[in-house]
Amino acid sequence: MKTEKNIRSIAYAFTALWGYAGTVKLISWTQSRAEMHKQPFPETVADVFFWAIPLLELGIVVLLLVPKLRLWGLRASLALITVFTLYLALVLGRAFGSIPCACGGILSGMGHAAHLVFNSFFVILGCIAMVLARKGRHGDIANPGVRRKEGRVFSG
């Protein structure tokens, strides 16, 4: 029960993160679009990312809120936050020159280093959720398509 509660708490933390980030990007779409176009992507890619990223973030929120889809939401969260964190590490390493943050909201006030620490915290949370789901007594969290009965695993 404690494992499930911890996984749910991590899912809610990601829900808050993605819900906030996606909503802010869509509400302040003029600023978000301008910041996306300052990134080192071609114009057409920036336009696609401008819409795809907040919609993906809000889609992940839906996955996280539906108990049977929560593990998929956590996997997607870990993948997305890892990509964002690696991108930030490259920005900090000056791989692209000087690039503004395209985050929006309170996160845009963070410097790149602080944002990297913030993201790294969520990467760690995502990893913890994956370990808990995999090693926990609640195999239905780690393998939603598998039913358990008296310690035995049944596909179904």
UniProtKB/TrEMBL annotation:
It is found in: Membrane. It is a multi-pass membrane protein. The chain crosses the membrane at residues 9-28, 48-66, 78-107, 113-133. It holds the Pfam family MauE. Residues 9-130 form the Methylamine utilisation protein MauE domain. Keywords: Membrane, Transmembrane, Transmembrane helix. The keyword Transmembrane helix applies. It comes from the Bacteria. This is Methylamine utilisation protein MauE domain-containing protein. It comes from Parapedobacter defluvii.
